[in-house]
Amino acid sequence: MVAAADTWLVWCATAGVHPLSGDVGDLERAARQLRGSGATERDVLDLVDQVGFMTGMWRTAAWVQLRRTI
């Protein structure tokens, strides 16, 4: 989980997104970039889960859809 949070923070810094106010679209872009860089499916899901919990995105239908389809 710590690695997922670090990944999110680094991605946000490079993308110019505030880590606590990013949206599901930002998270999807981060997850796809992570996957494109060779990360495992588990690492990508950890990112989605950790950021969803940390930001409260997990409460939205858009996050649930992303979690199911990423």
Question: What key phrases describe this protein's structure?
Answer:
single chain; 70 residues; mainly alpha; 4 helices
Q: What would you call the shape?
A: globular
Q: Number of DSSP helices?
A: 4
Strand content: under 5%
Count of individual beta strands: 0
**Which structural class should the secondary elements be placed in?**
mainly alpha
Unreliable residue runs: none
* Main sheet attributes: strand count, strand direction, barrel closure: none
Q: What is the share of helical residues?
A: over 70%
Mean pLDDT: 96
Distance from N terminus to C terminus (CA atoms, Å) equals: 18 Å
Explain briefly what this protein structure is.
This protein has 70 residues and is an all-alpha fold. The protein has helices at residues 2-15, 24-36, 41-55, 61-69.
Please, could you describe this protein's structure?
This protein has 70 residues and is mainly α. The chain contains 4 helices and no strands. Helix 1 packs across helix 3 (41-55) and helix 2 (24-36) packs antiparallel against helix 3. The mean pLDDT is 96.
Map the helices and strands.
Layout: H1 2-15, H2 24-36, H3 41-55, H4 61-69
Helix pairs in contact: 1-3, 2-3
